[in-house]
Structure formats: structure tokens, C-alpha cells
User: What shape does this take?
Amino acid sequence: PNGAGKTTLFNCITGFYAPTSGRVRYRGQDVTDLPVHKRANLGMGRTFQNVGLVKGSTAGQNLKTAQHLEVDYDPLAGIFGSPKTFEVERHITERARAILDLMGLAHLEDTRVQGLPYGVLKRLELAAVLATDPDILLLDEPGSGMGPEEAEELGDLLLKLREEFELTIVMIDHHVPLVTRISDYMYCLNLGQVLCEGQPEDVRNHPDVVRAYLGIDPDAEVA
Assistant: This one.
């Protein structure tokens, strides 16, 4: 349900919030005190409820910016245009184009992000996160605002990305059919606590989940 603490959990994992208790461990490493960019460097990729893109830049520029960790030349080399800068820029441009093509967004490479439809922005944000070369992908409501057909396409895309990029995906979403379809394991949070966990269909039909999520008592008699 809204206000259960799902986004807060993501913010703690990725370093935007400092937890008041407990530690955050990633692949056996304690990352609780690491800043956001260093967690990204370890392989954490994350999308946001409010799309995290540079609206005044083009789609291609956003994907190139997302690859800043790949840019290993110094500022002076960039100012004077050393041969290495052209090599690096060519590499990140080619990679940005490949990801846009994979996401079905190649035609938007030179289009400014501002003004694009919301569904396209969500897909573009996902492309930008993929450009950071993540090992784990944390998606905060990628299906929000999507109709059944768009959600079905998103599900197909996420399953494809998981296989092609060998990603672990952790997703927050209220679109129950989408979550149930693509998840191996599911948790339901309520008021900051894990209310239920397990196989998607089991969680979806659990009486406590139905009661908390829909406000319906599954044991109540129907008049």
C-alpha cells in the first residue's frame, strides 16, 4: 500500500537516506556509509518514481552522461581534445546508441527529453540506468501510469533484459498482474514491516495482503 516504506527502503539501499538502525550489505560488503556514486560504481542501478533524467538534454546525451564512470580522461585532455578523449567519446556514443536501439528508442537519440510521453520517459530512464552497467537493477514503480498493454510490453522487456544482461531485478510496483507475472519471489510491505513473502500467487492471495492492500476482509461474510 501507499506509505508502506517501499521507496524509503530503496533510498536506504542506494544511499539517498541513512538508515537509523541496521546495516546495508551488498555482495558481502558493508556499504552503509558509502555515498550514492560509489554504490553505483559497485553495480547498483536505480530508477525513480519521478523520472530521473536531464530534461533539457537529448535522449542520447542522457545515456552518455550515465556512462560518466567510463570517462577516464582528465579535464585538461577534454579541453584540448586529446586523441584519447575522441576514443572514449566514440565508445560511449556507440554504447548509448546500442542501448537505445535495444529499448526501441533509437529514433529519439537527438530528441530533447522534455515533452516526451510519460511511458517513453520511463523506458528512457531504464535505458539510462542500463548504461551504467549495473549488476542489480532497482526499479521504483516502472509500470505506473501504464495501461494493460503497455504493462505487458514492459514485462516482456524486463524478462528480456534480465536474461541478456544477467541482471538481478528488484521492483516496486502496484501493478499486481505485472509483478506476479515476472517475479520469482515477492514481498508485501505494510507500515514498514514485511507483511508476507513467498511465491507471487501465494502472496497475492494471502488474507493479510488482501486486507491491507484492498481494505477487504477476505473472511467477512457476504450479505
User: Anything to note?
Assistant: The mean pLDDT is 86.
